[in-house]
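TL;DR need structure tokens for one chain.
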Amino acid sequence: MTPQTALIVFDVNETLSDMSPLGQRFADVGAEPQLAAAWFAGLLRDGFALTVTGAHPAFGDLAQESLRVVLSTVVPDGELDDAARHVFKGIAELEVHPDVVPGIRALAETGVRMVTLSVGAAEVADRLLERAGIRDAFEATLSVAEAGRWKPDEAAYRHALDKCGVPAGEALLVAVHPWDLEGAHHAGLRTAWIDRAGSRFPAYFAEPDVVVESVGELVGNV
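>> reply
TL;DR here they are.
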């Protein structure tokens, strides 16, 4: 660890959790499994839009309504609510990516403070980490619900910093989403991009301070 990294803030959805099993949930209700990725991207887009306009949508409410919209072309009206609930419940049953447990354990051995910051409920992150056996490595599981603003609004990152009593320049935001890193960068945090897929980082966003392929590679690099 470099001296300025006093706190690592982890995104949760897709960064720690493997969301690919949601594809089967879509298939269960008669939709294409590939629709899962498009749905989640649309959910985030709509959450961002509402945040910009001053609204503060609850993740669960927005997620289920966006599921009704997406599934409405393949699920009869009378079955939409049940179908949306079936897919949404899958979020609470996700597991972490294979690199997460050994990576978090290795980071914990360095003594660095770690928290999560999610657009979803803190309780969901708690259960995810508990199932993986690494909840004890995290000081807290935080949610934008407590901040009143979704990431990438600066207020969301400030909420985490204030809760932990750490200056922005001593904190590192870790995520797989370039937009999340962009928000953290503008809030004054350092950033680390986990690129498991070997993809290109968008040139229109600020370059991340660290690029790794797994959580474990953060050790010695941040």
